[in-house]
């Protein structure tokens, strides 16, 4: 089937964590709410209600700053078990329509509804029905974007939030692209947008006519991808059950860590958590990485990849500690530590591969 005849929907729950909290606690409704950690414990905002966003409160913002922007802000600790339960409800609605559902997180997913179990020929009708069922079954609103590909559908879902529905038919793609800034492109955040603006590119469509050498100097290997997306070309399929690419954990500490023994203990604990996760998922990992953020907010990462994949907790912990020795841990105060595993191999794939270790549970 030609790509421009695909019918892709991107559904994004509106202010998901905060909306769940407001739904379940009537005293929070209509008030500015931030879900996240406490300000005096260096907490950050995980999600904010639309009332809070009116004051400039955004996710990933330090909670202390959020409270300065909005002194009336109500801070609620996250309850991920509850959010996951609601997310499963929403996914069940999606899968009643099509098996081609690609979750991106707890609150958003792509659906390919070109052919669907509801027998709806129009993707717009499918999107309306999805939104209505989500509202009826969860008492929450969602925004949806309908388009011929994933890139356009994701932009469309954010076009009229909250509770929005934006449809970009194949005939409207060019007119839609003409009105977009360059940071609408996938992979273009504030830093990359700044680099592009330095070479005279402020609008998405200007990427098309950019000098290839200048573009490559500005954004490196991303240049080709951006030029395709600027044409509205995104052939990526909706992939259900996308495999895990990495698993990591990190922690921001109430007080900076100074003692090397304590820092080592924390890294070892996180590395062993990663090994336990691999065991639960039936995976092995070739790569181990760590993350260290010093008190001055400078962040460094270290990674080691081996030809031999493993989930042996002793080996993974030893490799993480070896990486830690390549940092200034014990010399500089540390506010955040993290450790992770990636480069996965499944148990079945690992059997018989030369140099790959396999451990029984």
Structure description:
The chain has 13 helices and 12 strands. The chain has 361 residues and is of the alpha+beta class. Among the domains are: 16-80, MutS, DNA mismatch repair protein, domain I (3-Layer(aba) Sandwich); 180-230, DNA polymerase, domain 1 (Orthogonal Bundle), CATH 1.10.150; 246-350, DNA polymerase, Y-family, little finger domain (Dna Ligase, domain 1), CATH 3.30.1490. The strands form 3 sheets. Strands 5-6-1-7-8 form a 5-stranded mixed β-sheet. β7 (142-147), α6 (150-157) and β8 form a beta-alpha-beta unit. α4 (80-97) runs antiparallel to α5 (123-138) and α11 runs antiparallel to α12 (313-324). The two termini are 44 Å apart. Residues 347-361 have low confidence and may be disordered.
What brief labels describe this structure?
single chain, 361 residues, alpha+beta, MutS, DNA mismatch repair protein, domain I, DNA polymerase, domain 1, Dna Ligase, domain 1, 5-stranded mixed β-sheet, 4-stranded antiparallel β-sheet, 13 helices, 12 strands, 37% helix, 24% strand, disordered C terminus
Furnish the topology, listing elements before pairings.
Blueprint: E1 8-13, H1 16-24, E2 33-36, E3 45-48, H2 50-53, H3 63-69, E4 74-76, H4 80-97, E5 101-105, E6 108-112, H5 123-138, E7 142-147, H6 150-157, E8 165-167, H7 173-178, H8 190-198, H9 212-219, H10 222-230, E9 246-257, H11 260-281, E10 283-294, E11 299-310, H12 313-324, E12 334-346, H13 347-350
Parallel strand pairs: 2-4, 7-8
Antiparallel strand pairs: 1-6, 1-7, 2-3, 5-6, 9-12, 10-11, 10-12
Helix pairs in contact: 4-5, 11-12
């Amino acid at each position: 089937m030609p790509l421009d005849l695909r019918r892709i929907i991107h559904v994004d729950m509106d202010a998901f964590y905060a909306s769940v909290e407001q739904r379940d606690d009537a005293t929070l409704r209509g008030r500015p709410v931030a879900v996240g950690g406490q300000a005096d414990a260096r907490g950050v905002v995980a999600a904010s209600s639309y009332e809070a966003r009116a004051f400039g409160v955004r996710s990933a913002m330090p909670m202390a700053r959020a409270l300065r922007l909005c002194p009336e802000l109500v801070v609620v600790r996250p309850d991920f078990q509850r959010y996951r339960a609601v997310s499963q409800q929403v996914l069940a609605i999606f899968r009643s329509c099509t098996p081609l559902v690609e979750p991106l997180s707890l609150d958003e997913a792509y659906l390919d509804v070109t052919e669907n179990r509801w027998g709806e020929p129009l993707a717009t009708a499918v999107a309306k029905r999805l939104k209505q069922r989500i509202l009826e079954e969860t008492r929450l609103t969602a925004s949806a974007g309908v388009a011929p590909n994933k890139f356009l559908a994701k932009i469309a879902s954010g076009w009229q939030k909250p509770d929005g529905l934006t449809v970009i038919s194949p005939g409207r793609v060019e007119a839609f692209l003409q009105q977009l800034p360059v940071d609408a492109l996938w992979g273009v955040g504030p830093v990359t947008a700044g680099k592009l603006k330095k070479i005279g590119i402020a609008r998405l469509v200007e990427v098309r006519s950019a000098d290839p050498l200048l573009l490559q100097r500005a954004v490196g290997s991303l240049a080709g991808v951006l030029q395709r997306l600027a044409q509205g070309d995104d052939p990526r399929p909706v992939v259900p059950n996308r495999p895990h690419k990495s698993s990591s954990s990190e922690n921001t500490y109430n007080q900076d860590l100074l003692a090397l023994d304590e820092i080592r203990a924390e890294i070892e604990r996180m590395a062993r958590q990663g090994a336990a996760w691999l065991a639960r998922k039936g995976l092995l990992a070739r790569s181990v990485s760590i993350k260290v953020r010093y008190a001055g907010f400078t962040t460094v990462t270290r990674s080691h990849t081996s030809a031999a994949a493993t989930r042996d907790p002793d080996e993974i912990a030893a490799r993480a500690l070896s990486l830690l020795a390549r940092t200034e841990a014990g010399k500089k105060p540390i506010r955040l530590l993290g450790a992770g595993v990636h480069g996965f191999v499944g148990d079945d794939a690992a059997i018989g591969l030369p140099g790959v270790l396999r451990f029984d549970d």
